Amino acid sequence: MSIEHGHLLSRETLELMKERGAFLSMQPILDDEDAIPFPEGSFSRQKCIQVTEGTDRVYRLAKEIGVKTVWGTDTLFDSALAEKQGKQLAKLSRWYTPVEVLRQATSTAAELLALSGPRNPYRQGALGVIQEGACADLILVDGNPLENLDLVVDPNANFDLIMKDGVIYKNSLSQ
C-alpha cells in the first residue's frame, strides 16, 4: 500500500494509487545545495537531474490528484542526513502548505504505519493524534510552524520540548 521513491511515477500510476488508497512516500530530492555532487556530464549526474525534475512533477501531480503522501524517512538512516531531516521536511513547502507537510510527517504517516499489522511498534495506542490513550510523542515548538515551517529546520533552537513514548528527552521550558 506504499510506493517508495516514486520520483518518476506517471500520472496514470498516481491516479491508480489514489483509486486504490495507496500512499506515496518520497523525499524532496532537488538539484540544490544538498544534492549529491556528481561530475557534470556523467551518467549519474544525468540520472540525478531526471530524478530532481521528477520530484517536482510527481509532488505537483500527487497533490492535484489527491494521493495520500507521507514524508519519506531515508534521511533517518544516515547520521549526516539525519541532521538535515528538518530542512528536508521544510522543503516540501514548495508544493504543500505547512499543515499539509506536518500531516505528511505525523497523522498521514501514522495511517500508513497502522497498516503494518504485527510489525507496528505502536499497536498499544493511537498514533498521529493528540488524545487520551494515544502514544505520547510530542514536540513543542517555539513559534508557529503553521505560519513558519522553517522552524523545523533547527530543532536545537526551536524545539522546546521533545517527548517520545511519554518520556521527555528535551525540556527547555521555564519551570
Task: Give the structure's gist in a few sentences.
With 175 residues, the protein is of the alpha/beta class. Helix content is 36%, strand content 15%.
CATH superfamily: Metal-dependent hydrolases
What's the helical proportion of residues? 25-40%
Task: State the order of secondary-structure elements, H for helix, E for strand.
Answer: EHEHEHHHHEHEE
Output the CATH topology. TIM Barrel
Structural class: alpha/beta
The major pleated sheet works out as: 3 strands, parallel
Assess the beta-strand content as a share of residues: 5-15%
Silhouette:
globular
CATH architectural name: Alpha-Beta Barrel
Total number of helical segments? 7
